[in-house]
Automatic annotation (TrEMBL):
UniProt DNA-binding residue ranges: 33-52
Superkingdom of source: Bacteria
InterPro entries per the UniProt record, alphabetical: Homeodomain-like_sf, HTH-type_TetR-like_transc_reg, HTH_TetR
Gene3D superfamilies documented for this protein: Tetracycline Repressor, domain 2
Any GO molecular function: DNA-binding transcription factor activity
Residue intervals of the HTH tetR-type domain: 11-70
Pfam families (alphabetical): TetR_N (PF00440)
Protein name, entry field: TetR family transcriptional regulator
Swiss-Prot/TrEMBL keywords: DNA-binding, Transcription, Transcription regulation
Amino acid sequence: MTPRAPALPPRERRLALIEATLPLLHEHGRAVTTRQIADAAGVAEGTIFRVFTSKDELVDEAVIHAFRSGTFVTELETVDRDLPLRERLIEIARLLQERFISSFGLIRALGMMGPPDAVKADHDRRRDWRAHVAYAITALIEPDAELLRVPPAEVTRVLRLLVFAGSHAEITDGELLSPTEIVDIVLVGLLADPVAENPTVLKEKS
């Protein structure tokens, strides 16, 4: 028998149910059942309907949650700022790629062609989420701004675009770019000086 989760305030229970639902959506799409969700969350099935009006509401909230920026920014905060620029960017690209691949998989599992309508309709919030992520990435690049011929914010923009394209199976014909490939493309194109004159950027610290 699945152990029952401890009692939580409604707001925390909503979040716990949302987080339990997301992996199930990747596996089952909208066919996921409230029984499966309850088992994953360690609660009675009726608990779901104390904080959500329906399974559809829970699923919609879980999908919206997947596209929010907060959790991803928390992951970016784990990147070691003492790493050399190239290694730091590879770690950022790895996290970005994992997020994009997860988002693409969720969209496919739900039979959608893009982000859900609830996300697309809220233009202001989407803009804020993108800005939130961009600010966090740029802050990780700024310590090495003098090595670049464009502002760190532009490096962020180019990196995100290339990771997005390089992580999409249809765009890449099934041959995804690795984080290392992506970063080396960005760095060679945006270094202030030729690579030969900036060897420390492309090598780990000794």
